[in-house]
Amino acid sequence: MFTRAVSRLSRKRPPSEINDSDGKPGSSQQTLKGTSRWTTSLENLLEDPEGVKRFREFLKKEFSEENVLFWLACEEFKKTQDKKQMQEKAKEIYMTFLSSKASCQVNVEGQSRLNETILEEPHPLMFQKLQDQIFNLMKYDSYSRFLKSDIFLKHKRAEEQEENSSEAQSVAKRASRIYNT
Question: Can you count the helices (H) and strands (E) in the chain?
Answer without folding.
Answer: 9, 0
